Amino acid sequence: MKTAHEIRPGNVIMFNDSPWVVQKTETTRSGRNAAIVKMKLKNLLIESSTETTFKGEDKMDVIILERLDCTYSYFADPMYVFMDAEYNQYDVEAENVGDAARYIVDGMEETCQVTFYDGKAISVELPTTIIREVGYTEPAARGDTSGKVMKPAKIVGSDIEIMVADFVKEGDKIEIDTRTGEFKKRVN
Amino acid sequence: MNAAAPHWDIFCTVVDNYGDIGVTWRLAKQLAGEYALPVNLWVDDLKSFGHILPSLDPEACSQQHQGVTILKWSTPLPVAYTPGAVLIEAFACELPDDVKAAVKDASVRPVWLNLEYLSAEDWVDGCHGLPSFQPGGINKYFYMPGFSAQSGGLICEKDLFARRDAWQASSENKLALFEKLGLKGIAASDKVITVFSYETEALGALCEYFEQQPNPVHLLIPKGRSFNSLLPRLPCPVSELRPGMRIDSGNLHIHVLPMTDQQGYDELLWSADFNIVRGEDSFLRAQWAAKPFIWHIYPQEDDYHLVKLEAFMRLYCDNLAPDLASCWQKLNLAFNQQLPQAVQQHWEALTEFDSALEAHAKQWPIDALKTADLATRLVQFVKKSLR
Lengths: 188, 387
Known about the structure:
A: mainly beta, B: 14 helices, about 40% helix
């Protein structure tokens, strides 16, 4: 059992005797520090999607399906194509990739986990952290080295913009938490 | 198939005395009074509830007040729960297992709602009304109060603004109220500020500022957390403060307020020139009072409460003159961030905008309420869900 707070895009959860692949999660804070988790789910039996909300502490069954370590190969609209160590290719629908697609870039080397249901590749889960290069960000404000002052930065090869520490420069490699989309640290 | 019993059940855990129970008690009264709905309000701490409903018997398992059946929520439940038309868990409180089991086994299941905290943040609209899968194939819905037309709305009784306007039409009403509450020496022209805050150094700083003012300032404070921030000014420990006591220092007069019921608290807010409020219930009532206010928001981890404060301030200041908006926002931020010097500075600066801020405070309730209040939207939501 996992809490809603721990569920990530790519997980498959059981509800009402149906497996649902988690396409997107969005955690927000309610009053008194409680979390609300909004999810976009796709029913793998009837192929329909729905949006739902949970308290952060709600428990749910995550089902373990067959998984394979793969690397990203290319995008053939609407499919993301991944390849395993034996060069077998697997297509994952862009809709099922969900928010993870934000971090998928050509040439990425991180190992992803492709999940299968009934012999079909149904989702992909990224590593918890990935390293990406900063394509554009404003110069640092003078003197701040605390890491507490944040500024937006664009990532090479994608359209995402995340908040990074003020000391980060263009061309720096940074570590990003794929669960929250948050900047973790500079790695070069 | 049997038709569901028509009653509504609201479950509430009392977290900090008056907030959660304040909201659910208002909602229960409104549903019973304006919609003639049979409402059961289950509360886990009747003693605290008694502070805002003095006629409540804290030992009784079941009692009727203002059209609402108030039930004691202890474990096990002293009165059996029977599924009705609607089941509301207030503020994500965890329902008893036997209630969840009864819902699961019911031939006609109630519409099950989680009534969430009020927030002005953008994400509220996207979560309002969404189902939440529960074990056994049951759907629960997240009901999100909010300021937009797409949200669950704001609690406001239908006759509230008319009653407020009638009250504020004559200064006799406020003077009579102060007299009734045992508050001595307040003239009609004196500045009156109610304070219902959490602990903050900002309050002491405002006291320093007020005692230096050329005209009298009266702070009306109920015995409780606000006084913890004023210990050096008190002649005795907080536990020994008595309603009606007055502590004078220069032109500052601090009055110890007796506890009042919700009607009395509304009248107090209507009677003041400025209100310092906290949490959710008093925050909303201060807006409906049509008077300027500071919102002391419930503190959260990582200062997340400031995100919520900023979201509200953006809405509140949307059509305010930039100078006034900036000044009022800085005052609220300084109070919440416990910045004594900044609080004094921004309060002083805000005095230049007194009349414009008062005019805005009068217009805001009309703008904020939009098409319908929370109870009206809730009843519509339930009807739609039952279809």
